[in-house]
Amino acid sequence: MVPAVRNLEVATEGRLVVSEVFDRFLGDREQLAPGILDWAVSLGHGHYVRGCTRRVGQLTVTEVLDLVRNQGIQAIDLRFIDLPGLWQHFTIPANQLEASTFAEGVGFDGSSIRGWKEIEESDMLVVPDPDTAWVKIPSLVLTCDVVSPQTMEPYSRDPRGIARRAETYLAGSGIADTAYFGPEAEFFIFDDIRFDQNEHSGFYFLDSIEGRWNTGRDEGPNLGYKPRYKEGYFPVPPSDKFQDLRNEMMMNLIECGLEVECQHHEVATAGQSEIDIKFNKMLQMADDLVKFKYIVKNTAHRHGKTVTFMPKPVWNDNGSGMHIHLSLWKDGENLFAGDSYAGMSETALYAIGGVIEHAPALVALTNPTTNSYKRLVPGFEAPTHLAYSSSNRSAAVRIPM
User: Fold this and answer.
1) Cis before 138? omega within 30
2) What's the distance, CA 119 to chain centroid?
3) Bridge partners, 326 (sequence order)
4) Mapping DSSP to helix (H, G, I), strand (E, B) and coil, where does residue 11 land?
5) What is the pLDDT of residues 348-368, one digit of tens each?
6) What are the backbone angles phi and psi of residue 143, rounded to the nearest 5°?
7) When you count CB atoms within 10 A of the terminal residue's CB, does the N or C end of the chain come out lower?
8) Cα–Cα distance between 205 and 201 in angstroms, integer?
């Protein structure tokens, strides 16, 4: 997945999280319905396809403003990433977007965002990044950086700001000039989810047309073909009931500028799936992954399904991880390729050592919930050993072929 000879695969899950541990050595890190997205336009060196942006080069502020005027955009959706990694947004009328907005930003209440500001210091700004512009008619979507209004300095807890600092630090370290990240995001597609916890009861209930537990259900008629537990990798339809839906997700991702490598059913029953997107630099990949989750969830929602990236929603079957392929490069050369163990270089082995050394800190970010550790148990292809190994999927760091 990562270019050239060798790369590391770090087992994580759910979110592509950027950690300041990078400063020690390296980084951790709607349905867009076709019927409402029929437009296409070429603008300068930026190329747009139906519904979303596919950029060939960067966009300037002037080009973004021209796009708003020429395409009849009515609203500007300003989005940013909170500390836990969720996309947040608010919307302004298109006539409120000016060139000065890209320098001065737009205010919001930072005390209402988890883990950020106290109420007595709540004022914050989002500053749009013009290179992130894409269209979901009749809105233009811009991903923003978060800054302090008093100093106009990047906010220390803004994940995009952390990613920028990490990339700058790496380039200044002399070790490498580029780090590539390639996540493999796994998820479940459910038909029904219910849960409650109150003073006198608590429960959760999940269901899927594919669920093995539904072999005896009256479905008027039940046509069978429910994948057995741990045998969902990867039969053809009709056992795989979500091939067409994943194809639609894949095409929506491609239309929005993401380079998809493949899609397939995963090991678990009940619609576990995976769609792989091509590696990229840290900040671009982080932006792409939140867009990926947004598109996948909304594509499913349009079809009356719900998608979850939760690590272990189904007991006694494989959970969902997010392997992250990573490699360090300098002057166009892959620094992880060499003649040591499994074809790795000494630099790669030191990088592995850095991940293992700082694992106790990293898991607070890469595996942040109690549900995470219900997945990390033997027998379900989840990493259970703080070790590295060639091709061994139970190791925290795996070196693929």
Assistant:
1) yes
2) 30
3) 8, 181
4) strand
5) 999 999 999 999 999 998 898
6) -85, 140
7) C
8) 13
